[in-house]
Amino acid sequence: MSKLTKTVVDKSEPRDRQYTVWCGELKGFGVFVLPSGTRTYFVDYRNANNVRRRMKLGRHGQITAEQARTLAIQALAEVSKGNDPLENRNSARKAISVKELCELYIAELEAGRILGKGGRPKKASTKITDLGRINRHIIPLLGKKRVTHVTKADVTTMMKDIMAGKTRGIEKTEKLRGKSIVRGGIGVASRTVGLLGGIFTYARDDLGIIEVNPAHGIRKPKDAVRQRRLNEDEYRALGRILANAAEDERYTRTVEMIRQIAMSGCRRSEVIKLRKTELDTVGSCFRFEDTKEGQSVRPMGLPVLEYFDERDMSGDSPYVFPGERNLAKPFGSFPRHWEKIFAGTELADITAHVLRHSFASLANDLGFTEITIAALLGHATGSITSRYVHTLDAALVMAADTVSGYIHALLNGAELTHTHYALDRGSRKAALVRFLTPHQDSTAQAETSQRLAA
Protein backbone atom coordinates (compact mmCIF):
# COMPACT_ATOMS: atom_id res chain seq x y z
CA MET A 1 0.00 0.00 0.00
CA SER A 2 1.22 3.47 -0.88
CA LYS A 3 0.86 6.74 1.01
CA LEU A 4 -2.70 8.05 0.95
CA THR A 5 -2.62 11.21 -1.19
CA LYS A 6 -5.07 13.30 -3.16
CA THR A 7 -4.09 11.48 -6.33
CA VAL A 8 -4.72 8.07 -4.81
CA VAL A 9 -8.11 9.15 -3.47
CA ASP A 10 -9.16 10.74 -6.77
CA LYS A 11 -8.31 7.52 -8.61
CA SER A 12 -10.41 5.41 -6.23
CA GLU A 13 -13.48 4.74 -8.38
CA PRO A 14 -16.83 3.92 -6.75
CA ARG A 15 -17.98 0.30 -6.77
CA ASP A 16 -21.22 -1.50 -6.12
CA ARG A 17 -20.36 -1.73 -2.44
CA GLN A 18 -18.46 0.47 0.00
CA TYR A 19 -14.74 -0.28 0.23
CA THR A 20 -11.72 1.08 2.08
CA VAL A 21 -8.37 2.44 0.90
CA TRP A 22 -5.70 2.34 3.62
CA CYS A 23 -2.62 4.52 3.97
CA GLY A 24 0.62 2.53 3.68
CA GLU A 25 2.59 4.94 5.93
CA LEU A 26 0.20 5.82 8.81
CA LYS A 27 -1.41 2.80 10.41
CA GLY A 28 -5.14 3.26 11.00
CA PHE A 29 -5.55 6.14 8.54
CA GLY A 30 -7.76 5.51 5.51
CA VAL A 31 -10.63 6.60 3.33
CA PHE A 32 -13.81 4.69 2.50
CA VAL A 33 -15.48 5.10 -0.84
CA LEU A 34 -19.27 4.84 -1.18
CA PRO A 35 -21.15 3.68 -4.29
CA SER A 36 -22.36 7.27 -4.63
CA GLY A 37 -18.77 8.41 -5.13
CA THR A 38 -18.48 10.10 -1.72
CA ARG A 39 -15.04 9.60 -0.16
CA THR A 40 -14.66 10.06 3.63
CA TYR A 41 -11.39 10.05 5.57
CA PHE A 42 -11.25 8.23 8.90
CA VAL A 43 -8.87 6.94 11.54
CA ASP A 44 -9.15 3.47 13.03
CA TYR A 45 -7.85 2.66 16.52
CA ARG A 46 -8.47 0.69 19.73
CA ASN A 47 -9.23 2.59 22.92
CA ALA A 48 -7.97 1.85 26.44
CA ASN A 49 -10.64 -0.85 26.79
CA ASN A 50 -9.43 -2.55 23.58
CA VAL A 51 -12.64 -1.57 21.79
CA ARG A 52 -12.19 -0.86 18.10
CA ARG A 53 -13.28 2.64 17.11
CA ARG A 54 -13.54 4.36 13.74
CA MET A 55 -13.69 8.16 13.78
CA LYS A 56 -14.63 10.12 10.66
CA LEU A 57 -12.31 13.01 9.88
CA GLY A 58 -14.10 14.69 6.97
CA ARG A 59 -15.12 14.33 3.36
CA HIS A 60 -12.67 14.46 0.51
CA GLY A 61 -13.07 17.85 -1.16
CA GLN A 62 -14.02 19.55 2.09
CA ILE A 63 -10.63 18.72 3.56
CA THR A 64 -7.48 17.60 1.78
CA ALA A 65 -5.65 14.34 2.27
CA GLU A 66 -2.85 16.11 4.15
CA GLN A 67 -5.31 17.87 6.47
CA ALA A 68 -6.99 14.52 7.16
CA ARG A 69 -3.57 12.97 7.86
CA THR A 70 -2.82 15.71 10.43
CA LEU A 71 -6.16 15.07 12.16
CA ALA A 72 -5.44 11.34 12.20
CA ILE A 73 -2.03 11.89 13.78
CA GLN A 74 -3.59 14.11 16.48
CA ALA A 75 -6.28 11.50 17.20
CA LEU A 76 -3.72 8.70 17.49
CA ALA A 77 -1.63 10.85 19.81
CA GLU A 78 -4.66 11.19 22.10
CA VAL A 79 -5.14 7.42 22.01
CA SER A 80 -1.53 6.94 23.11
CA LYS A 81 -2.34 9.06 26.20
CA GLY A 82 -5.24 6.79 27.09
CA ASN A 83 -7.95 9.08 25.74
CA ASP A 84 -10.76 8.23 23.37
CA PRO A 85 -11.04 11.04 20.77
CA LEU A 86 -14.31 9.73 19.29
CA GLU A 87 -15.93 9.57 22.75
CA ASN A 88 -14.70 13.09 23.50
CA ARG A 89 -16.16 14.36 20.22
CA ASN A 90 -19.52 12.71 20.87
CA SER A 91 -19.62 14.13 24.40
CA ALA A 92 -18.92 17.61 23.07
CA ARG A 93 -21.72 17.28 20.51
CA LYS A 94 -24.12 16.16 23.21
CA ALA A 95 -23.12 19.03 25.54
CA ILE A 96 -25.99 21.38 26.30
CA SER A 97 -26.20 24.84 24.84
CA VAL A 98 -26.26 28.05 26.86
CA LYS A 99 -29.99 28.31 26.12
CA GLU A 100 -30.60 24.82 27.54
CA LEU A 101 -28.50 25.67 30.58
CA CYS A 102 -30.57 28.83 31.12
CA GLU A 103 -33.77 26.76 30.94
CA LEU A 104 -32.44 24.43 33.65
CA TYR A 105 -31.41 27.43 35.74
CA ILE A 106 -34.85 29.04 35.35
CA ALA A 107 -36.54 25.82 36.50
CA GLU A 108 -34.36 25.81 39.63
CA LEU A 109 -35.05 29.53 40.10
CA GLU A 110 -38.82 29.02 39.95
CA ALA A 111 -38.54 26.14 42.42
CA GLY A 112 -36.76 28.39 44.92
CA ARG A 113 -33.52 26.43 44.82
CA ILE A 114 -31.36 29.29 43.54
CA LEU A 115 -30.20 31.29 46.53
CA GLY A 116 -29.59 35.01 46.52
CA LYS A 117 -28.43 37.51 49.12
CA GLY A 118 -28.03 36.11 52.60
CA GLY A 119 -28.49 32.53 51.43
CA ARG A 120 -32.22 33.10 50.89
CA PRO A 121 -34.23 32.12 47.78
CA LYS A 122 -34.40 34.95 45.29
CA LYS A 123 -37.40 37.24 45.62
CA ALA A 124 -40.17 37.44 43.02
CA SER A 125 -39.00 40.86 41.79
CA THR A 126 -35.43 39.58 41.41
CA LYS A 127 -36.69 36.54 39.50
CA ILE A 128 -38.53 38.81 37.05
CA THR A 129 -35.37 40.88 36.53
CA ASP A 130 -33.24 37.76 36.04
CA LEU A 131 -35.69 36.29 33.53
CA GLY A 132 -35.65 39.54 31.58
CA ARG A 133 -31.85 39.58 31.37
CA ILE A 134 -31.73 35.90 30.40
CA ASN A 135 -34.38 36.13 27.67
CA ARG A 136 -33.44 39.56 26.31
CA HIS A 137 -29.66 39.50 26.49
CA ILE A 138 -27.99 36.18 27.34
CA ILE A 139 -29.99 33.81 25.10
CA PRO A 140 -30.05 36.10 22.01
CA LEU A 141 -26.28 36.64 22.21
CA LEU A 142 -24.94 33.32 23.55
CA GLY A 143 -27.86 30.88 23.46
CA LYS A 144 -26.63 28.74 20.58
CA LYS A 145 -23.10 28.20 21.90
CA ARG A 146 -22.23 25.00 23.75
CA VAL A 147 -21.64 25.65 27.41
CA THR A 148 -18.28 23.87 27.27
CA HIS A 149 -17.18 26.08 24.39
CA VAL A 150 -17.93 29.48 25.97
CA THR A 151 -14.76 31.47 26.68
CA LYS A 152 -14.00 34.69 28.50
CA ALA A 153 -13.72 36.35 25.12
CA ASP A 154 -17.31 35.29 24.34
CA VAL A 155 -18.57 36.75 27.63
CA THR A 156 -16.64 39.97 27.04
CA THR A 157 -18.12 40.26 23.53
CA MET A 158 -21.63 39.74 24.95
CA MET A 159 -21.01 42.48 27.52
CA LYS A 160 -19.82 44.94 24.88
CA ASP A 161 -22.79 44.13 22.63
CA ILE A 162 -25.20 44.91 25.49
CA MET A 163 -23.33 48.14 26.24
CA ALA A 164 -23.63 49.11 22.57
CA GLY A 165 -27.38 48.45 22.59
CA LYS A 166 -27.31 45.46 20.24
CA THR A 167 -30.16 43.84 22.18
CA ARG A 168 -32.30 46.96 22.48
CA GLY A 169 -35.91 46.74 21.41
CA ILE A 170 -39.54 46.92 22.50
CA GLU A 171 -41.35 43.78 23.59
CA LYS A 172 -44.99 43.11 24.40
CA THR A 173 -45.79 41.95 27.92
CA GLU A 174 -48.66 39.91 29.29
CA LYS A 175 -50.52 43.01 30.44
CA LEU A 176 -53.12 44.57 28.16
CA ARG A 177 -51.29 47.03 25.89
CA GLY A 178 -48.21 46.41 28.04
CA LYS A 179 -44.72 46.78 26.64
CA SER A 180 -41.16 46.43 27.87
CA ILE A 181 -38.49 48.77 26.54
CA VAL A 182 -35.09 47.04 26.39
CA ARG A 183 -32.29 49.60 26.20
CA GLY A 184 -29.09 47.84 27.28
CA GLY A 185 -26.29 50.11 28.45
CA ILE A 186 -23.37 49.95 30.87
CA GLY A 187 -25.34 49.11 34.02
CA VAL A 188 -27.39 46.38 32.35
CA ALA A 189 -24.26 44.89 30.75
CA SER A 190 -22.41 44.73 34.05
CA ARG A 191 -25.31 43.15 35.94
CA THR A 192 -26.01 40.67 33.13
CA VAL A 193 -22.41 39.45 33.28
CA GLY A 194 -22.89 39.00 37.03
CA LEU A 195 -26.03 36.93 36.43
CA LEU A 196 -24.27 34.86 33.74
CA GLY A 197 -21.51 34.19 36.26
CA GLY A 198 -24.13 32.81 38.64
CA ILE A 199 -25.57 30.60 35.89
CA PHE A 200 -22.13 29.21 35.05
CA THR A 201 -21.47 28.63 38.76
CA TYR A 202 -24.66 26.54 38.78
CA ALA A 203 -23.34 24.62 35.73
CA ARG A 204 -20.02 24.01 37.49
CA ASP A 205 -21.13 23.22 41.04
CA ASP A 206 -24.56 21.65 40.54
CA LEU A 207 -24.33 20.06 37.08
CA GLY A 208 -20.60 19.42 36.89
CA ILE A 209 -20.42 20.11 33.14
CA ILE A 210 -17.64 22.72 33.30
CA GLU A 211 -14.60 23.10 35.51
CA VAL A 212 -13.89 26.81 35.02
CA ASN A 213 -16.42 29.65 35.11
CA PRO A 214 -15.73 31.76 31.98
CA ALA A 215 -17.60 34.77 33.44
CA HIS A 216 -15.24 35.07 36.41
CA GLY A 217 -12.47 37.62 36.13
CA ILE A 218 -14.24 39.64 33.43
CA ARG A 219 -13.40 43.31 33.76
CA LYS A 220 -16.82 44.94 34.04
CA PRO A 221 -17.49 48.64 33.51
CA LYS A 222 -18.11 50.60 36.69
CA ASP A 223 -21.80 51.36 37.04
CA ALA A 224 -22.74 55.01 37.29
CA VAL A 225 -23.06 56.08 40.94
CA ARG A 226 -26.32 57.85 41.67
CA GLN A 227 -25.47 61.35 42.89
CA ARG A 228 -28.91 62.97 42.75
CA ARG A 229 -30.20 64.23 46.07
CA LEU A 230 -32.62 66.93 47.10
CA ASN A 231 -31.33 70.13 48.63
CA GLU A 232 -33.43 72.12 51.09
CA ASP A 233 -34.99 74.34 48.40
CA GLU A 234 -35.99 71.21 46.47
CA TYR A 235 -37.55 69.69 49.59
CA ARG A 236 -39.67 72.82 49.92
CA ALA A 237 -40.53 72.58 46.22
CA LEU A 238 -41.50 68.94 46.78
CA GLY A 239 -43.82 70.02 49.57
CA ARG A 240 -45.52 72.55 47.28
CA ILE A 241 -45.90 70.01 44.44
CA LEU A 242 -47.45 67.46 46.79
CA ALA A 243 -49.77 70.05 48.32
CA ASN A 244 -51.03 71.03 44.86
CA ALA A 245 -51.49 67.38 43.86
CA ALA A 246 -53.41 66.63 47.08
CA GLU A 247 -56.13 69.06 45.97
CA ASP A 248 -57.14 66.37 43.45
CA GLU A 249 -58.76 63.54 45.40
CA ARG A 250 -57.39 60.97 42.96
CA TYR A 251 -53.85 61.64 44.17
CA THR A 252 -54.45 62.06 47.92
CA ARG A 253 -53.29 58.57 48.84
CA THR A 254 -50.23 58.72 46.57
CA VAL A 255 -49.22 62.09 48.05
CA GLU A 256 -49.40 60.60 51.56
CA MET A 257 -47.27 57.67 50.47
CA ILE A 258 -44.65 59.93 48.88
CA ARG A 259 -44.41 61.97 52.07
CA GLN A 260 -43.85 58.83 54.13
CA ILE A 261 -41.13 57.64 51.74
CA ALA A 262 -39.42 61.03 52.03
CA MET A 263 -39.63 61.15 55.85
CA SER A 264 -38.80 57.50 56.56
CA GLY A 265 -36.16 56.65 53.94
CA CYS A 266 -38.08 53.45 53.13
CA ARG A 267 -37.96 51.87 49.70
CA ARG A 268 -40.93 52.51 47.42
CA SER A 269 -41.98 48.85 47.46
CA GLU A 270 -41.81 48.75 51.26
CA VAL A 271 -44.34 51.56 51.59
CA ILE A 272 -46.60 50.33 48.79
CA LYS A 273 -46.75 46.81 50.27
CA LEU A 274 -46.71 47.90 53.91
CA ARG A 275 -48.91 45.63 56.03
CA LYS A 276 -50.74 46.69 59.17
CA THR A 277 -48.96 43.95 61.10
CA GLU A 278 -45.61 45.53 60.20
CA LEU A 279 -46.42 48.77 62.04
CA ASP A 280 -45.33 48.93 65.67
CA THR A 281 -46.40 52.39 66.80
CA VAL A 282 -45.87 51.48 70.46
CA GLY A 283 -42.26 50.54 69.76
CA SER A 284 -41.92 53.39 67.22
CA CYS A 285 -40.65 51.15 64.47
CA PHE A 286 -41.38 49.24 61.29
CA ARG A 287 -41.10 45.47 61.55
CA PHE A 288 -40.81 44.45 57.92
CA GLU A 289 -41.30 40.73 57.33
CA ASP A 290 -39.65 40.59 53.94
CA THR A 291 -37.40 43.25 52.42
CA LYS A 292 -34.39 43.26 50.13
CA GLU A 293 -32.31 42.44 53.22
CA GLY A 294 -34.80 39.94 54.66
CA GLN A 295 -36.58 40.72 57.94
CA SER A 296 -35.85 44.26 59.08
CA VAL A 297 -36.64 46.36 62.16
CA ARG A 298 -36.31 50.11 61.54
CA PRO A 299 -36.94 53.18 63.69
CA MET A 300 -39.93 55.34 62.85
CA GLY A 301 -39.47 59.11 63.13
CA LEU A 302 -42.06 61.03 65.14
CA PRO A 303 -43.79 62.70 62.13
CA VAL A 304 -44.20 59.28 60.50
CA LEU A 305 -45.36 57.73 63.77
CA GLU A 306 -48.00 60.44 64.26
CA TYR A 307 -49.24 59.97 60.69
CA PHE A 308 -49.83 56.25 61.18
CA ASP A 309 -51.34 56.85 64.62
CA GLU A 310 -53.95 59.14 63.08
CA ARG A 311 -54.58 57.01 59.98
CA ASP A 312 -57.73 54.93 59.93
CA MET A 313 -56.60 51.30 60.04
CA SER A 314 -60.08 49.79 60.08
CA GLY A 315 -61.19 47.58 57.23
CA ASP A 316 -60.49 44.04 56.13
CA SER A 317 -57.45 44.74 53.96
CA PRO A 318 -54.11 43.57 55.41
CA TYR A 319 -52.41 46.53 53.72
CA VAL A 320 -52.01 50.05 55.07
CA PHE A 321 -52.50 51.35 51.52
CA PRO A 322 -54.91 48.85 49.91
CA GLY A 323 -55.86 48.65 46.25
CA GLU A 324 -58.74 50.79 45.08
CA ARG A 325 -60.72 47.92 43.55
CA ASN A 326 -59.17 44.88 45.23
CA LEU A 327 -58.60 45.32 48.96
CA ALA A 328 -56.66 42.04 49.10
CA LYS A 329 -53.86 43.63 47.08
CA PRO A 330 -51.65 46.69 47.72
CA PHE A 331 -52.24 50.03 46.02
CA GLY A 332 -51.24 49.60 42.38
CA SER A 333 -51.58 53.09 40.90
CA PHE A 334 -48.51 54.56 42.58
CA PRO A 335 -46.12 54.50 39.54
CA ARG A 336 -48.72 56.05 37.22
CA HIS A 337 -49.72 58.70 39.75
CA TRP A 338 -46.05 59.53 40.43
CA GLU A 339 -45.51 60.34 36.75
CA LYS A 340 -48.57 62.59 36.60
CA ILE A 341 -47.78 64.41 39.86
CA PHE A 342 -44.23 65.34 38.81
CA ALA A 343 -44.75 65.79 35.05
CA GLY A 344 -43.76 69.29 34.00
CA THR A 345 -42.41 70.29 37.43
CA GLU A 346 -38.89 71.24 38.48
CA LEU A 347 -38.58 67.80 40.10
CA ALA A 348 -39.64 65.77 37.06
CA ASP A 349 -36.29 63.90 37.13
CA ILE A 350 -36.53 62.48 40.64
CA THR A 351 -37.44 58.93 41.61
CA ALA A 352 -38.47 57.31 44.87
CA HIS A 353 -34.87 56.17 45.27
CA VAL A 354 -33.76 59.81 45.13
CA LEU A 355 -35.94 60.44 48.21
CA ARG A 356 -34.28 57.51 49.98
CA HIS A 357 -30.81 58.71 49.00
CA SER A 358 -31.69 62.26 50.09
CA PHE A 359 -32.84 60.95 53.49
CA ALA A 360 -29.44 59.31 53.98
CA SER A 361 -27.57 62.39 52.75
CA LEU A 362 -29.49 64.70 55.09
CA ALA A 363 -28.81 62.33 57.99
CA ASN A 364 -25.12 62.65 57.16
CA ASP A 365 -25.46 66.45 57.03
CA LEU A 366 -26.98 66.35 60.52
CA GLY A 367 -23.92 64.54 61.85
CA PHE A 368 -25.06 60.92 62.11
CA THR A 369 -22.54 58.17 61.48
CA GLU A 370 -22.54 55.70 58.61
CA ILE A 371 -23.56 52.81 60.88
CA THR A 372 -26.51 54.83 62.22
CA ILE A 373 -27.63 55.81 58.72
CA ALA A 374 -27.35 52.18 57.60
CA ALA A 375 -29.63 51.14 60.46
CA LEU A 376 -32.12 53.91 59.60
CA LEU A 377 -32.27 52.64 56.02
CA GLY A 378 -32.28 48.93 56.84
CA HIS A 379 -29.00 48.15 55.08
CA ALA A 380 -27.41 44.82 55.94
CA THR A 381 -24.48 46.47 57.72
CA GLY A 382 -26.87 48.29 60.01
CA SER A 383 -29.31 45.49 60.73
CA ILE A 384 -27.13 42.45 61.35
CA THR A 385 -28.58 42.02 64.86
CA SER A 386 -32.05 43.37 64.09
CA ARG A 387 -33.51 39.86 63.96
CA TYR A 388 -32.56 39.41 67.63
CA VAL A 389 -33.80 42.73 69.09
CA HIS A 390 -37.35 43.63 70.02
CA THR A 391 -36.82 47.24 71.08
CA LEU A 392 -34.71 49.80 69.29
CA ASP A 393 -31.79 51.76 70.65
CA ALA A 394 -33.04 55.10 72.02
CA ALA A 395 -30.30 56.93 70.12
CA LEU A 396 -31.53 55.35 66.89
CA VAL A 397 -35.09 56.51 67.54
CA MET A 398 -33.72 59.99 68.30
CA ALA A 399 -31.85 59.94 64.99
CA ALA A 400 -35.04 58.97 63.13
CA ASP A 401 -36.95 61.75 64.92
CA THR A 402 -34.30 64.31 63.99
CA VAL A 403 -34.06 63.41 60.29
CA SER A 404 -37.80 62.85 59.81
CA GLY A 405 -38.64 66.01 61.70
CA TYR A 406 -36.20 68.07 59.64
CA ILE A 407 -37.62 66.75 56.35
CA HIS A 408 -41.18 67.23 57.62
CA ALA A 409 -40.41 70.88 58.37
CA LEU A 410 -38.83 71.40 54.94
CA LEU A 411 -41.83 69.84 53.18
CA ASN A 412 -44.01 72.32 55.06
CA GLY A 413 -41.89 75.21 53.76
CA ALA A 414 -39.73 75.96 56.80
CA GLU A 415 -36.44 77.84 56.43
CA LEU A 416 -33.92 76.01 58.62
CA THR A 417 -30.25 76.17 59.43
CA HIS A 418 -29.22 72.64 60.18
CA THR A 419 -26.33 71.69 62.44
CA HIS A 420 -24.81 68.52 63.80
CA TYR A 421 -26.96 67.38 66.68
CA ALA A 422 -23.82 66.60 68.69
CA LEU A 423 -22.71 70.24 68.33
CA ASP A 424 -26.12 71.79 69.03
CA ARG A 425 -25.95 72.21 72.82
CA GLY A 426 -29.25 74.02 73.02
CA SER A 427 -31.14 71.06 71.52
CA ARG A 428 -29.28 68.64 73.73
CA LYS A 429 -30.03 70.61 76.90
CA ALA A 430 -33.70 71.02 76.00
CA ALA A 431 -34.00 67.29 75.33
CA LEU A 432 -32.26 66.50 78.62
CA VAL A 433 -34.58 68.80 80.57
CA ARG A 434 -37.66 67.16 79.09
CA PHE A 435 -36.25 63.72 79.89
CA LEU A 436 -35.28 64.48 83.48
CA THR A 437 -38.38 66.47 84.42
CA PRO A 438 -41.26 64.62 82.79
CA HIS A 439 -43.80 65.51 85.47
CA GLN A 440 -43.17 69.25 85.80
CA ASP A 441 -45.58 71.72 84.29
CA SER A 442 -44.51 73.82 81.34
CA THR A 443 -43.56 76.87 83.46
CA ALA A 444 -41.32 74.93 85.81
CA GLN A 445 -39.81 73.12 82.85
CA ALA A 446 -38.98 76.39 81.13
CA GLU A 447 -37.33 77.73 84.31
CA THR A 448 -35.23 74.59 84.64
CA SER A 449 -34.21 74.88 81.01
CA GLN A 450 -33.10 78.49 81.56
CA ARG A 451 -30.99 77.49 84.58
CA LEU A 452 -29.28 74.72 82.62
CA ALA A 453 -28.70 77.04 79.68
CA ALA A 454 -27.11 79.60 81.99
TrEMBL record:
Domain of life per record: Bacteria
Coiled coil residues, start to end: none
InterPro entries membership: DNA_brk_join_enz, Integrase-like_cat_sf, Integrase_catalytic, Integrase_DNA-bd_sf, Integrase_DNA_bind_dom, Integrase_recombinase_N, Phage_Integrase
GO terms for MF: DNA binding
Signal peptide boundaries: none
PROSITE patterns per the UniProt record, alphabetical: TYR_RECOMBINASE
Family affiliation: Belongs to the 'phage' integrase family.
Protein name per its UniProtKB record: Integrase
Lineage, highest ranks first: Bacteria, Pseudomonadati, Pseudomonadota, Alphaproteobacteria, Sphingomonadales
